[in-house]
Amino acid sequence: MILEAHEITKNFGGVRALNKCSLGIKKNKITALIGPNGSGKTTLFDVISRLIKPNSGFIKFKQERIDKFRPNKVAKMGISRTFQDPRLFKNLTIKDHFMMALSTNDESMFAKEKDVEWKIKEIMNLIGLTKPLHTLGSDLSYGQRKLLDLGVALAKPHDLLMLDEPVAGVNPKLRKQIKKIIQNLNKKGETVFLIEHDMNFVMDLVDHIFVLDAGEVIASGKPKQIQNNKKVLDAYLGE
Amino acid sequence: MIESYLLHIGILIAIYIILGVSLNLALGFTGLLNLGHVAFFGIGAYTSALLLKAGVSFIMAFFISGLIAAIFGFLLVLATRKLKGDYLALATLGFSFVIYSLMLNLTELTRGPLGIPGIPKPVIFGFKISGLLPYFIFVTILAVITVFLIYKIVKSPFGRLLQGVRDDEIGLKVLGKDTFKLKAKSMMLSAFFAGIAGSLFASYITYIDPSSFSLAEIILIFTIVIVGGIASIKGTIVATFIIILIPEALRFLYLPSTVLGPLRQIFYALILLGILLYRPKGLFGRIDLE
Ligand SMILES: Nc1ncnc2c1ncn2[C@@H]1O[C@H](COP(=O)(O)OP(=O)(O)OP(=O)(O)O)[C@@H](O)[C@H]1O
Ligand SMILES: [Mg+2]
Q: Do the bridges between strand B127-128 and strand B123-124 make them parallel or antiparallel, or are there none, so unpaired?
């Protein structure tokens, strides 16, 4: 297990977004977290990346508890993630985005950097982003932002890639493209943990599924097992 | 006569360029809505004045005034680290008032409203910089160095991160960057340059009192940056000329000084309002300040 969540509970005021939620992510596999709207999927991602502090429970990443760490420390330890609504730097260029992700010493005022444009081009090829490098974040379409967010997460050194609904709001052609990208990444040895709302999208993509409903893991297993699980079907129908 | 008047204006412009460009580093490039910049200016001026009067050399006093201002910059970021946007602006405005009232009330140190007279002119490597022309050259050189350094900073990988903090702090955290440290460094650099501007100011007019570091002064520096444009160094420089020169022209209307002062404030307010309404990116900015 590269990542373990142990009985995470998180309340927002009166809303219990996560209720003793536990799960484990295996190395070199694609794992999906699915569940109806508002079931707590994004909240779990935020707890893992330490943007949100849980009320109870803890997270282990690479065998180490990360409860006390700040988000940047967890990221530096090797967790890359994207956001459901891609977060981008609107006044910076595509190249800036990648340079920030690739650089490990730019927090020093005196950092010098090598030109790694070839590396950026390689990642852009991989994700199929064709815009010129000097394009500003604010000049990208939603789909392009989604791709750039993915590319930046890839460029940042990491051992675990967490994707929050990588194909939400994306056209069917781009959906296929992103699915292919994720499969190729996994073939190269990437460990992927992704959130997806649509059960059908993950069926032929992932190795393992966790199903979240009202903040609780109600089922977990191989896609085949999940497909026919009555509890899961009920949770989705009751939506 | 006219020549010494022009030199006087030139010296003020150089000092305000240092203030404006350094504020833009924190405000424009890092997105820290800081209304406390004038406090750093004042801290630098008082530190330098007191040290010079105590017999410390100018070079020492100059750098220490920058360092002390930077330390206050760090404390300000530390105290406001949970605040953003309007709340940060209010807190930093509060900081200005605290410093202002300390200048007024720490009479043992600052002589309160009486101010500190007789601040010595700079002596550097045995040369005393006292005439208007030498002082003008001196501050202009320092303004050029400041602009050059801040330009280098914002164009560096580090400066790119500062802009990342401005655009999306959370996005930067998940890339593994320590955004608190980045904000602290930006504010400290910004405060350092404001501090040395204070030192230059004190030794130029040789007399300081709290009124030089009041709310009106905050508005003036803020107006310069907003008019020039967020995150535009060129804009700040051009705006400094405009904002300092135009009210000077009012002088030639030979109005009584009781009218001139308020008129100047009205002018700043109008120009700020005009820019915000019709050109929210400023003269040379690319970026809206939300
Ligand atoms: N910052 C917050 N403040 C208050 N309530 C929140 C907050 N974030 C999430 N919630 C609530 O917690 C619950 C879980 O939200 P979460 O975003 O984790 O769901 P999700 O599974 O990601 O849903 P979706 O499929 O819509 O993205 C919801 O009821 C939501 O309204
Ligand atoms: Mg979500």
A: antiparallel
Give per-residue burial for B251-264: e unless 16+ CB within 10 Å, then b: eeeeeeeeeeeeeb
Residues of chain A found within 8 Å of residue B173, distances taken between Cβ atoms = 51, 70-72, 75
Chain B from 134 to 193: CB within 8 A of any A CB: 153, 156-158, 160-161, 163-164, 166-168, 170-179, 181-182, 185
Number of residues assigned to chain B: 290
Q: Is A35 near ligand 1, meaning CB less than 6 Å away? A: yes
pLDDT tens column, B185-204: 999 999 999 999 999 999 99
Asked if residue B177 has pLDDT above 60, the reply is yes
Is B111 in CB contact (< 8 Å) with chain A? no
Task: Please report which confidence band the pLDDT of residue B290 belongs to, taking 50, 70 and 90 as the band edges.
Answer: low
Q: What is the pLDDT of residues A122-144, one digit of tens each?
A: 999 888 889 999 999 999 999 89
pLDDT at A239 over 60: no
User: B54: part of which helix (H) or strand (E)?
Assistant: none
Q: What is the rounded CA–CA span in Å between residue A121 and residue B176? A: 22
Q: Residue A129 corresponds to which tokens in the numbers above?
A: 């982003």
CB atoms within 10 A of CB B224: 29
Does the domain at A3-87+156-235 match CATH 3.40.190.10? Answer given as: no
Which residue from A9, A15, A46 has its CB within 8 A of the most atoms of ligand 1, so it is best to mutate?
A15
**pTM here?**
0.91
**B189 vs B26: CA distance, rounded Å:** 8
Q: Which phi and psi (to 5°) does residue A22 adopt?
A: -125, 140
The two most distant CA atoms of chain A are separated, in Å, by: 59
Q: What are phi and psi of A8, to 5 degrees?
A: -80, 125
The answer to whether A31 and A209 are in contact (CB under 8 A) is: yes
Q: Closest to A81 (Cβ–Cβ): which among B167, B174, B178?
A: B174
Q: Read off the pLDDT of residues B124-145 as tens digits, 9 standing for 90 and up.
A: 888 888 888 999 999 999 999 9
How far is the C-alpha of A226 from the C-alpha of A228, rounded, in Å? Answer: 5
- Supply the pLDDT for residue A131: 92
| Position A237 confidence tier, pLDDT thresholds 50, 70, 90 | low
Query: Over chain B, what is the mean pLDDT?
Result: 90
CB A148 within 8 Å of CB A133: no
User: Where exactly are the structural domains of chain B?
Assistant: 2-214
Whether residues B164 and A107 touch (CB distance < 8 A) is answered with: no
